[in-house]
Amino acid sequence: MWRQVTEMARDTIALLPQIAVAVVVLVLTWALAALGRSLVNRALSRTKLRRSLQDLFILLTSILIWVFGIMIAAVIVFPGLTPASILAGLGIGSVAIGFAFKDVFENFLAGIIILFRREMRMGDHIECEGIEGKVAHIAIRESHIRQTDGQLVIVPNAMLFKNPVYVRTDQDHRRQTIICGVAYDVDVDEARSVITKAVESCETVEQGDHPIQIFAQEFAASSINFEVTWWTGSTPVEQRRSKDEVVTAVKRGLDDAGLEIPFPYRTLTFKEPLPLTRPRKEDGED
Length: 286
Known about the structure:
alpha+beta; three-stranded antiparallel β-sheet; SH3 type barrels; five-stranded antiparallel β-sheet; Alpha-Beta Plaits; 3 domains
């Protein structure tokens, strides 16, 4: 046993020069990776690529440099190894690792694809699988969604890749619709004119390329309903602010014009006359 320990120590001492060179190679690899990240960062900062894509290219550059540096260090320490054998070993190992970390790699690949999407950017308001909010950050494995109530939701990228994603702010303006009812004795054309003028008076209503549309929609239970459609800003707060302004303006306009906004009436009909009872006299009264 002592002989085996002696031989192992002798072999280790013999490998010390190669280990020292490998350590130097790893230190140089670290410095080269830092330099590569800096150069790629400076080069990409002059382009119009999104910051998330720039971070992706910087990360891939660093990984590539480290892979080559570790391969060179391994060949120095173990001269029997060749780049081809290392790559073959990495291929077999990657299959096993791929099965073990399937979800991780799935999210990683989905993240790369999402980063190349132009339709969804950081700052956009999106909705996916009941999660709605502002895209705060897009990473390689996950995306951060800041909901309108302030909560931060961390979403796996595979979820955003596999399911429909509604990008609320893909355009500067979105359509908004409300239903407004008037009484049956109100002139329909007059009501339409009053509602149109009320909506046109609102500052939050876009009146350029998107016309205001007022349509008599249906005969409801106690009113004639109008579908009121206009375009406004695409963010959630702009949508709420515009709806508030339009509802207020339409209500004021109909009131000023003397046009009734009805509420449900209920008429009770009795087939037989109800018996009438005389009020009970108090004690002492005649």
